[in-house]
């Protein structure tokens, strides 16, 4: 019979992403954002028909999708080449070309916050006039007038939820990723949702169940995020539901069923629950994926979910009660089944100070194993490597590389005190966790000390640079994807709305000069003796191009072997298929070249 070759690299990259979705109120139309035609656009399906058609064409990343409750229009947010300056556009009900609705200076941001029940008033936040703290406005869509609702102060302020009568508003103020306080404004009155706003905690994802009753998520006086309640009439805060060692997220209220839905983050996976606040009955809902990105509950009580697993690319599923989850999309890896892909093992090891660290270990199939391993510190740093699909990982695995991804201190999913361990300590504790991880790999014969590569993106790129500079003996070659190279320049160049969190997150460049010097990769240029590939999006607003430019220039001055790949139309990630293919192919070639 006809013989076919082994899967080619191209097949792994011909997997498309689905980044967001929304269902119309009547559940007749599903719109989702995807790079199905190579760049991100909006696609739609008129259910139960599952063949997608192009709904809106803009070729740019999408920040939100929202249906008018009366199906007269659709709203969506787009940025430009990954610059994260999201602006709000409107589309006719039948789709077409997005028309600017809340846009202005291309350097400004306009974030969607809420749409009134009648679809006539749009609430949004903007950096215009208040770049660090943001202002909240309401736009009357009938006469297009804008009214200022709230001027952000003290720290970055987001409008989170609006009561049904549009008289009460919940805002969050971010002082750090681990310090977000929420307050409700009602007329002239303002009340924090938690008892002591000066205590470090997070409070977010609020939902009004009536005009004075607010459910929200918080870790106030707790290591994990739980469900809490604030009563606007008697100004009372109460704890409602805690789940041991799980942090709640994605809170949604379904008025018709009187039911709260949420997912929880537990280490490297997510779980889904529904909770009846009256009977306090909690029910776990099994899901077809390990990672839940978004849920939407419709008036009829049907549940829609966007999610992924290590061997399943992003797909959208429908759950109509007791029956099975029905996949609405069939996003796959070209010509490969789940069995051809690798599910990671969850392992743990003790770090230098006894702290338990969880990690994902991806082993290539024995017939593919090339004896080399890749060490992958994740980005964030207050994020985690979880069981999500990464075409890059599956491609490396198919080429025979083992991949090890530790959730070093500072990672999410293990409680708030673990997340805080990276604050004002970017380069010591997490770096020593990475070293402990590498030694554990060697001790357990999971990697060969002569055959280890180092790859990381963003904070992971920073860690790759730092490990390279300080411990070059461990690695054959290093790939840095938009990594921070110099903490002094990074702290000055982050987007204005990040400025309020920099002190707690990273520290102060004057007060902490010695630590910034010690923890900046540029301090260790002498050590960076192994071949390097540096990849950078020119429009990256988070880790700006100057971070990569300076390390590349300094290494070149020293005559080191550095390849530099700049993507002119990308930001902090690769949203365009051809760019993704270019980047991952360059990485594969680089690794192959340095195997010997
Ligand atoms: C403010 C914050 O935590 N931002 C992160 C999501 C982020 O983008 N961090 C960069 C540095 C990264 O590592 O991805």
UniProtKB/TrEMBL annotation:
Could you provide one GO biological process annotation from this protein's UniProt record?
proteolysis
By its UniProt entry, which PROSITE patterns does this protein fall under?
PRO_ENDOPEP_SER (PS00708)
Which part of the chain is the Peptidase S9 prolyl oligopeptidase catalytic domain?
Answer: 388-594
Tell me which UniProt keywords the record has, alphabetically.
Answer: Acetylation, Aminopeptidase, Hydrolase, Protease
GO molecular function terms here? aminopeptidase activity; serine-type endopeptidase activity
InterPro entries xref list: 6-blade_b-propeller_TolB-like, AB_hydrolase_fold, Pept_S9_AS, Peptidase_S9_cat
Q: What does this protein do?
A: This enzyme catalyzes the hydrolysis of the N-terminal peptide bond of an N-acetylated peptide to generate an N-acetylated amino acid and a peptide with a free N-terminus. It preferentially cleaves off Ac-Ala, Ac-Met and Ac-Ser. Also, involved in the degradation of oxidized and glycated proteins.
Report the protein name in the record. Answer: Acyl-peptide hydrolase
Q: Which organism is it from?
A: Planomicrobium soli
């Amino acid at each position: 019979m006809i013989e076919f070759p082994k899967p080619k690299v191209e097949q792994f990259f011909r997997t498309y992403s689905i980044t967001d979705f929304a269902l119309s109120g009547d559940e007749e139309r599903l719109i989702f954002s995807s790079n199905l035609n190579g760049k991100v656009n909006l696609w739609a399906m008129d259910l139960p028909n599952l063949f997608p058609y192009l709904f809106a064409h803009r070729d740019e990343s999408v920040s939100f999708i929202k249906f008018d409750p009366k199906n007269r229009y659709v709203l969506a947010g787009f940025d430009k080449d990954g610059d994260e300056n999201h602006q709000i556009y409107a589309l006719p009900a039948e789709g077409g070309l997005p028309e600017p609705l809340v846009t202005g200076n291309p350097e400004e941001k306009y974030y969607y916050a809420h749409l009134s029940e009648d679809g006539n008033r749009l609430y949004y936040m903007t950096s215009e006039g208040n770049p660090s703290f943001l202002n909240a406005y309401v736009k009357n869509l009938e006469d297009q007038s804008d009214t200022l609702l709230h001027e952000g102060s003290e720290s970055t302020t987001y409008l989170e939820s609006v009561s049904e009568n549009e008289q009460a508003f919940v805002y969050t103020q971010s002082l750090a990723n681990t310090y977000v306080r929420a307050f409700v404004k009602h007329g002239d009155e303002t009340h924090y949702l938690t008892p002591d706003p000066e205590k470090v905690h997070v409070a977010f994802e609020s939902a009004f169940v009536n005009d004075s009753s607010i459910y929200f998520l918080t870790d106030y006086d707790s290591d994990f995020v739980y469900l809490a309640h604030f009563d606007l009439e008697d100004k009372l805060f109460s704890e409602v539901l805690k789940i041991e060692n799980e942090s709640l997220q994605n809170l949604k209220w379904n008025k018709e069923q009187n039911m709260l839905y949420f997912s929880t983050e537990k280490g490297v996976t997510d779980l889904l629950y529904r909770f009846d606040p009256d009977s306090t009955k909690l029910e776990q809902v099994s899901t077809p994926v390990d990672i839940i990105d978004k849920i939407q509950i419709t008036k009829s009580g049907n549940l829609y979910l966007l999610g992924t697993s290590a061997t399943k690319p992003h797909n959208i599923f429908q759950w109509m009660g007791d029956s099975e989850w029905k996949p609405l999309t069939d996003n796959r890896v070209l010509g490969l089944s789940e069995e051809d892909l690798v599910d990671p093992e969850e392992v743990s090891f003790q770090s230098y100070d006894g702290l338990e660290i969880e990690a994902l270990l991806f082993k290539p199939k024995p017939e593919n194993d090339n004896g080399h391993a890749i060490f992958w510190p994740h980005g964030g740093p207050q994020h985690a490597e979880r069981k999500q699909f990464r075409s890059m990982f599956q491609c490396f695995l198919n080429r025979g590389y083992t991949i090890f991804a530790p959730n070093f201190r500072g990672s999410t999913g293990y409680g708030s005190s673990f997340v805080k361990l990276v604050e004002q300590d970017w380069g010591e504790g997490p770096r020593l966790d990475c070293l402990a991880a590498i030694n554990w790999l060697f001790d357990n014969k999971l990697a060969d000390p002569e055959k280890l590569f180092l790859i990381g993106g963003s904070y992971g790129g920073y860690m790759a640079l730092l490990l390279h500079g300080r411990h070059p003996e461990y690695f054959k070659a290093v790939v840095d994807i938009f990594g921070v190279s110099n903490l002094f320049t990074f702290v000055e160049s982050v987007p204005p709305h990040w400025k309020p969190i920099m002190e707690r997150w990273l520290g102060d460049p004057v007060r902490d000069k010695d630590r910034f010097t010690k923890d900046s990769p540029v301090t260790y240029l002498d050590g960076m003796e192994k071949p390097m590939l540096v990849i950078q999006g020119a429009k990256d607003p988070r880790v700006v191009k100057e971070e990569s430019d300076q390390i590349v220039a300094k290494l070149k001055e020293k005559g080191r072997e550095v390849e530099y790949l700049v993507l002119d139309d990308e930001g902090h990630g690769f949203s365009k298929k051809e760019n993704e293919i270019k980047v991952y192919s360059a990485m594969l070639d680089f690794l192959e070249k340095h195997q010997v």
